[in-house]
Amino acid sequence: MKKVLVVRNDKIGDFMLAWPSFAMLKQSLPECRVTALVPNYTAPVARLCPWIDEVMIDPTAKSSKAEQAELVSDIKQRGFDAAICLFSNGYNAKLLWKAGIPYRLAPATKLAQFLFNRRLKQRRSRSEKPEFEYNLDLIRYFLADNQIECIEPQGPYLAFDEEVLAAQKEKLVVQLALDSGKPWCFIHVGSGGSANNLSLAQYAELIKGVAKQQHCEFVLTAGPGEEVMAASLYELIKAEVSAYVYDTNDGLQDFTRSLACADLFMAGSTGPLHIAAALDVPTIGFFPSKRSATPLRWKTLNTAGRHLAFCPPAGKEQETDMGLIEIEAVLEDAKPWVAQYCS
């Protein structure tokens, strides 16, 4: 197994939860060349992963037949010994089958499984374990199937040199007029359409509650199309809290370096939350209680004790109603925990 292709070509949050899998594979097979197949918007952060040797761009199922045929040809030319598809769908199954990769492993789900010649039965719909553990189970299967000793990975999974962080902090001080002498609490109110999030009013109450105890600088982050939301939240809190809108950056890698500068990060279950967690920035996450979206299923990559999760009460009528999360109760649990990192 000299060349292995790992496929995780969906959203940023999903991709971040594959980092332990890349770590396990590369640490167990250090001489193997590990290539990741990802969509274009995920590629910048994929290039930061120390266990990925090469990044290939997937034009995705929305692309033309000519673009997909070009990708199949490119994969064929690279001569992969194996492909590990961390989630299964028809597009990925056909892609790897057409590319003729001799060893093709994926979860045994849906009709697409029959185009893979190695399958691991998983019941991800039951959400009995974190997503990153389902991914790791596939790597463990692959290693055992090829008689390779498995090296279990340990976080943090992403880090920057002190010089890089110092330069990024200075850049943010200049760009946003932040006080470098105070803790920085980042808040991301967008969701990318992937999961329900708190309302702006709930975030405003949360920020004001934290501010009463901790003298933080609050940084309101925004991705493309989320600028208005961040600006609206700023209007709700500016009279009482030292806050700044951070809606302009120099790309995903630059944004990731900025997240590494945070002392605390709060968000719904979305890509930036999982990037911050891979950096082991202390995180507070807000999740639906729906089985497919719970804090357990989308558990972050933080090391032990550096993550708090909240969700609505369980029940079919309310499991996705984030308005049922009582901020007063959140603050009661969060304040002593936040004090560890923002004092």
From TrEMBL:
GO terms for cellular component: cytosol. Keywords: Glycosyltransferase, Transferase. One of its GO terms (biological process) is lipopolysaccharide core region biosynthetic process. One of its GO terms (molecular function) is ADP-heptose-lipopolysaccharide heptosyltransferase activity. SUPFAM superfamilies: UDP-Glycosyltransferase/glycogen phosphorylase. InterPro entries: Glyco_trans_9 (IPR002201), LPS_LOS_Heptosyltrfase (IPR051199). This is ADP-heptose--LPS heptosyltransferase. It comes from Photobacterium proteolyticum.
